[in-house]
């Protein structure tokens, strides 16, 4: 595989580390040269891309890749990677044969705590989720025009090394906000990388929820992490009394249980099916920082 990563951030770097021994080359974009060293440490050849004017080497590398992963957020003007991939696919001799798009379970909107799968209607309520849904539609149309498999991975709340309740407890920023019947799905970054590798190896397209198997109240996750650390968890704060940013509060306006049955039925085995397995493993291995 020759892999091109649009947006070589947290999830994309995890994917690169997982597949670097199998990949002929991994290229990845970043907005700043300050990130070059971190990308190179993950075996990614860094390329500058500000979302507007790509340099010619970027376009050449893109057209010569076999697998393209989109891990950048769309904006009000759409996804800046679409036009570049369209251009690459229009080039005679391009070698692109699979596209993976990292989206969000936020596109489903609120379902009053009910289970949803990939066939559920999408009713995004936030601007960021609406932009994701619109981007999914644009990428789907591009895929159909060029006959290239497109895998849309709808991700739940991402955590892993450096991004987890252990970190928040250590910093004193952890909070246990309680809203009646509220649950969230979440996903360890290793399983994002694993799902990408699983789908890319067989060039599989479709929509897939990439999420754990146990939607849970967020306050329970903090309590479990505190128990592993041997520290007292922060007190519970009723949602109505919580001092939250508008973005943080918006997450609590949606309540759903997201099923991962489709990708499991294809044969993907999650490394961490619930937060307890993941947090226990990170604590034992001291890999949470």
UniProtKB/TrEMBL annotation:
Protein's name in the database: Nucleoside-diphosphate-sugar epimerase
Organism, as annotated: Phyllobacterium leguminum
NAD recorded as keyword: yes
Domain NAD-dependent epimerase/dehydratase: 101-210
Key words of the record: NAD
């Amino acid at each position: 595989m020759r892999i091109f990563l649009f947006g070589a951030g947290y999830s994309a770097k995890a994917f690169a580390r997982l597949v670097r021994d199998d990949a002929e080359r991994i290229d990845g974009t970043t907005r700043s040269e300050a990130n070059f060293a971190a990308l190179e440490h993950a075996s990614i050849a860094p390329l500058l891309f500000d979302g507007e004017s790509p340099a010619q080497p970027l376009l050449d590398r893109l057209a010569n890749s076999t697998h393209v992963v989109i891990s950048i957020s769309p904006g009000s003007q759409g996804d800046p990677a679409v036009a570049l991939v369209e251009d690459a696919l229009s080039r005679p001799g391009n070698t692109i044969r699979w596209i993976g798009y990292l989206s969000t379970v936020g596109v489903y909107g609120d379902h009053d705590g009910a289970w949803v799968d990939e066939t559920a209607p999408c009713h995004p309520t936030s601007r960021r989720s609406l932009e994701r849904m619109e981007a999914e539609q644009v990428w789907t149309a591009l895929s159909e025009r060029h006959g290239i498999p497109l895998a849309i991975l709808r991700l739940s709340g991402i955590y892993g090394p450096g991004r987890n309740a252990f970190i928040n407890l250590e910093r004193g920023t952890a909070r246990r906000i309680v809203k009646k019947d509220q649950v969230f799905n979440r996903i360890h970054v290793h399983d994002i990388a694993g799902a990408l590798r699983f789908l890319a190896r067989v060039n599989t397209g479709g929509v897939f929820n990439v999420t754990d198997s146990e939607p849970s109240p967020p306050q329970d996750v903090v309590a479990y992490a505190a128990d592993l650390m041997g520290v007292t968890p922060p007190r519970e704060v009723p949602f109505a009394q919580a001092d939250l940013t508008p973005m943080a509060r918006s997450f609590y306006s949606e309540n759903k249980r997201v099923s991962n049955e489709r990708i499991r039925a294809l044969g993907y085995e999650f490394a961490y099916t619930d937060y307890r397995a993941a947090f226990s493993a990170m604590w034992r291995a001291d890999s949470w920082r």
